[in-house]
Amino acid sequence: MGRKNIKQKNSKGGKKKGAQYKDKSLHKGRFEITRSGMGFVVVDGLERDIIIKPHDFNKAFHGDLVRVEVIKGDERSGRLQGKITQVVERKQKQFIGEIEVNKDFAFFLAQGNKPVPDFFIPLTSLNGAKDGDRVIAQIVSWEADDKRPKGEIIEVITPEKESDLAMKELLIEQGFSVQFSEEVMEETARIPDAITKSDLQARKDIRDVLTFTIDPEDARDFDDALSFERFQDGSIAVGVHIADVSHYIEEGSALDVAAYERATSVYLPDRVVPMLPERISNELCSLRPHEDKLTYSCIFRLDEKGKIISQWIGRTVIHSNHRFTYEDVQLIIETGTGLYDLEILKLNEFAQSMRKQRMKNGAINFSSQEVRFKLDASGAPLGIVIKESKESHQLIEEFMLLANKAIAQKVAEVKLNAKPVPFPYRIHDQPTEEKLIPFIEFAKKFGYQFSTKTPEDIAKSFNTMLTKVKGLPEQRVLEQLGIRTMAKAIYTSENIGHYGLGFSHYCHFTSPIRRYPDILVHRVLSGVLGDHVLPDKKMEQKCQHTSERERAAMETERAANKYKQVEFMKQFLGEEFEAVISGVAGFGFWAETIDHKCEGLVSITTLQDYDDFIYIETDYALVGKRSGWAFRIGDSVRIKLVAANLTKRQLDYDWIMKIDNTVVKSSRKKK
């Protein structure tokens, strides 16, 4: 409902001055509460948010998805006011706070800067909590006639659990539950272990084909496996086998609802918060070695050079012969020898060929680094390890991409009443001109030219630059800024292709243990293969929800990594480090230490003792008016750690000198 709907006309056809909004239309949007206590509902398509006054919150909390009725509006300001009529989806069900215990009842008082009503806690639901304890509580119910929600205590926070609490706070703030409900756990416990004859009837049995998994050393949930079978004509069948999670989870069950609410597993430095209970993720569905497992499979028949001759998609039963780590496989690739070495080396040959072809077809080849923490038994960081993508990782990546692409293409071919089947595509839009043009101008300063005639030309220019820049001083800054020009990939039923991968059809099929969209894909695929497709009218809504949960998980993971960085760096207060400028703004620049990849801020207030610095946006630089000293993104600097704030998850640095000694910080302040 846009601003034009606010306008009304008088009997003579003119506008009625100061007219109030009469059409009590319902909208759906995300509810936000400001520090002052005023509420707003953000609705797609409306020019301005809808104001909600506290007496019209109607049991909604900050972050909830709600329906709102517009009750009035002013045509001059375009401002709408409304009241919430329904909480469609709670963002947050668990909260951290304090418990007050009385003789006959107890109250939970939530902490935080967003208003949350006190919870009524029956004495039978205290779970060992005593008066004054810090606890985690969750909403059980909120009846229409009750002034406050009814809750239960799920955990008491003790002083020695501060680091653990910090991680749980981050999860809870983003709406991730730290425990599964009793109903979900009971439902999970009732799932039978045994694979029955009826389970096998409609499946291809490939238990006698060589099959193995390749995963990180500390992985426990094995979503995917590869199989390898060579034929007399020289062709090779490579199977991509994915845990058939949808076999075990009944749509609409408590377990399914809980998985949908989370929509993703969350990977923090000291734990994994799984989308599904461990009995499913680590046992029933994990493709563990020497166990029969139910899977969904794409089996590709390839010739000796890796060209696809044919493909088959369907349900299977497999039996993994071995569990490899990435390190195991990398050693085989580098030495040419080891368990199943001929098969591993052939798969790697195929993968590298597919990768090369992808780049030629327009995929963009950004390199990636993974920063991981070494932790002690209590979760405290002892050190930082930087892991780079190697051929063993690329081997798995290429075959997973191949399967995801094949599934999306398969479903796209099917039509219902001449319309596409509702399906959760994974799409990635091309860069906007607004983001791309400043980057291209910056890259020119290093001698890199871009063609913007077509999206394919842009991708080709990116790849040319990324190849030429390897090993040069400007590599990191151009890679970093290049990634920032890219749009965010999302789930949607409206397919526009995946620009970054260069695919016209793409989906997520290969990780149903940790991503809910993959379960949706399996369910649609089941209908397609069985010729009984039932269109899901809420597919786009589910895509939006899972995209939002994915963003929330990324924010949680980023904040958790930052917390651990600060926790680790506290021991180095007052020490100096070599660093690289990783970002620049009008209020200072961010520097990332070379050895630890720990980023902190050098405030412009600490630089103003030496010159007046202005921010040059096109150069990503702070430049001194008198001295001409410049702090550009990608520059090497020497910094000193002056503050490490765990509460704010913030590191503060002071600039000491340029590494090349062209600028040295004087002991006397320059004016």
Structural commentary:
The chain is α+β, with helices and mostly antiparallel strands and 671 residues long. Among the domains are: 3-89, OB fold (Dihydrolipoamide Acetyltransferase, E2P) (Beta Barrel); 94-157, OB fold (Dihydrolipoamide Acetyltransferase, E2P); 187-415, no CATH class; 573-658, OB fold (Dihydrolipoamide Acetyltransferase, E2P) (Beta Barrel), CATH 2.40.50. The chain is 27% helix and 30% strand. It has 14 helices and 33 strands. The strands form nine sheets. Strands 11-18-17-14-13-12-19 form a seven-stranded mixed β-sheet. Strands 1-2-3-5-4 form a five-stranded mixed β-barrel. A five-stranded antiparallel β-sheet has the order 8-7-6-9-10. A hairpin with a 5-residue loop joins strand 27 and strand 28. Helix 7 (341-360) crosses helix 8 and helix 9 (433-444) packs antiparallel against helix 11. The longest helix is centred in the C-terminal third of the chain and has 31 residues, at 539-569. The radius of gyration is 28 Å and the shape is globular. The chain starts with 25 loop residues before the first strand and ends in a 13-residue tail after the last strand. Mean pLDDT is 90; it is low at 1-21 and 659-671.
